[in-house]
Design brief:
Blueprint: H1 2-8, E1 11-22, E2 25-32, E3 39-40, E4 43-45, H2 52-64, E5 66-69, E6 77-84, E7 90-105, E8 117-120, H3 122-128, H4 132-144
Parallel strand pairs: 1-7
Antiparallel strand pairs: 1-2, 1-4, 2-3, 2-8, 5-7, 6-7
Helix pairs in contact: 3-4
Length: 147
Amino acid sequence: MMETTRMEQVLQQAGVIPYSVVNGTIRVLLVTSRDTGRWLIPKGFVDDGYSPLDAAVKEAFEEAGVEGVMHTDTPLGFFTYFKRLKSGEDRPASVIVYLLRVEKQCKKWPEKKQRQSAWFTPEEAAKLVKEPGLAELLRRLENLTEH
């Protein structure tokens, strides 16, 4: 019984790795968290009425101000981390991650003044993020995208 309770406490989120190809080089866009300022990908909870894919696209716009194309509805992968809730409690979270090829970087978006964003090579991004599973997804990116 205890095991089931623990599993029910795992938060489910959806995220996106926004990328573009510049002069044959893949670049990924990271954003900072609002609380600690650490580098991460746009991600958030899957609201009722949204699929994980739709939620990932929504987060890409709200947190990073980017719009683009998902070439597949198959996720790139998953990673886990501990999310600090407003209560101060740390809860395990599982994030389903999709790839979004950026076609437009907007001038205005909902969280522009709350976060920083910057473009990096996948290897640079992998070194900046704290979550080992996310770092691994970023490192795999060059092998999985079409240039």
